């Protein structure tokens, strides 16, 4: 079987509503699941100390999006705003926990570097 080659596309193209009316329509209909999966994968990557998340947009499209570690918090904020706008408060709570996990890792890392100095 041949390995399939995918094009890398900036994550903003598929996760920012302002970028394209099709994206807005897509997120209006499937945003709950999209952001739940994206944020869950980011949280998993953070707990496993991964430097980025690579997600397949759609098997028929042939594009993947890459979310670098420095953008994790940005994506969390976009998802949080989407869930607030759509009054999905349970997911807001989940996203806040994910953000706390991300910030805890940063705090531990900075404390460790200070003690080494």
Describe this structure in words.
The longest helix has 28 residues, at 89-116. The model has no long low-confidence stretch (mean pLDDT 88). This protein starts with 6 loop residues before the first strand and ends with a helix. Helix content is 62%, strand content 15%. It has 117 residues and is an alpha+beta fold. The protein contains four helices and three strands; from the N terminus they run βααββαα. Helix 2 (21-47) packs across helix 4 (89-116). It has one domain (7-116). The protein has a three-stranded mixed sheet. 19% of the residues are buried. A hairpin with a 4-residue loop joins strand 2 and strand 3 (63-68).
Write the layout of secondary structure elements.
Blueprint: E1 7-10, H1 12-15, H2 21-47, E2 52-58, E3 63-68, H3 72-85, H4 89-116
Parallel strand pairs: 1-3
Antiparallel strand pairs: 2-3
Task: Considering the chains and any ligands shown, give keywords for the structure.
117 residues, alpha+beta, 3 strands
The low-pLDDT segments are none
Number of domains: 1
The class by helix and strand makeup works out as: alpha+beta
**Mean model confidence by pLDDT:** 88
In short:
With 117 residues, the protein is α+β, with helices and mostly antiparallel strands.
